[in-house]
Amino acid sequence: MMRFHVLTLFPGAFQGPFQHSMLEQASRNGFISIQLTDIRDYTHDAHKTADDYQFGGGPGMVMKPEPVFEAVEDVLGGYSTEERAHIPVVLLSPQGEAFTQVLAEELSQSPAIVLICGHYAGVDERIRQGLATREISLGDFILTGGELPAMMVVDAVSRLVPGVVGSMENVTEDSISSGVLQHPLYTRPFEYRDMAVPDILRSGHHAEIETWRRQESLKRTLNLRPDLLKSARLSEKLTAEDLKYLQSLGYEPEDD
User: Fold this and answer.
1) Which CATH number belongs to the domain containing residue 243 in this structure?
2) For position 171, what pLDDT does the model report?
C-alpha cells in the first residue's frame, strides 16, 4: 500500500477530489491510503495561529515553522527508523524541481510520501532547510496554495501503484510514459458531424492497426511536443523504424 500524508491548513479542500472515481476506489480497495493532517492542530495558542508577519517587513504572511515541524514529526513517528529514511518529505513550492512522469515513477517506489502544502506568501525558510527533503513545482506559475499541486501529485503517483489502474499496460502506454504522445482514440458512432473513424481501425488487421497507431503517435509528438523525441531517443524508446518514419516527416535528430 502506498501511503500519502498531506499536511495542509485547509483539509476540507481535498474532500471532493479524493472521494470520487479512481482514487476513491483505490483507497477503498486498500491500494493507497490518504491521510489529511490539519497543520492548525499543532499550533499552541487559542486562535490556532499558523502564520505570522515577516521579519524585516514585507507584504503577506508566512507560515510558522513550529506547527509544520511538529505535524511532520508526528506523522513520521508512526514509521520505523528504516522506513523514515525512505519517505520523502515534499514541500510543494514554485521554487522546486519540475514534477514530471519520471519523478512520479520515482516517488511511487517510496513506502509513503509526506506532502507539505504551503500557503500565504510562503513558508518559513527553516521548513525548507531543516525539514523538507525535496521541493516540487508543477510549473512556472503561482497558485494560492499547495493544495491543488498536492492533489495532482497524489493522482499521478497513485496511478503507478499496482492495482489502482485496471491494467498496468494502460499506464506504460500512456502519453509521456511511453516516450511519445498517445495516438488518436475513437469510439462509436462511426461517423459524427461529418467526422468518421479511420477505416484502418475497423479493418480487423491488428498488425496494421498497431503500425498506424504508432505512426500517429510519432506524428503527433513531432507536431505538438518535439522536445519529447530527444529524451525518447536517448532512452531508447524509439526504434530504428520509428526514426525512419520520423525522418520521412522531416525530423532531424539533434546532435547529442
Assistant:
1) 1.10.1270.20
2) 66
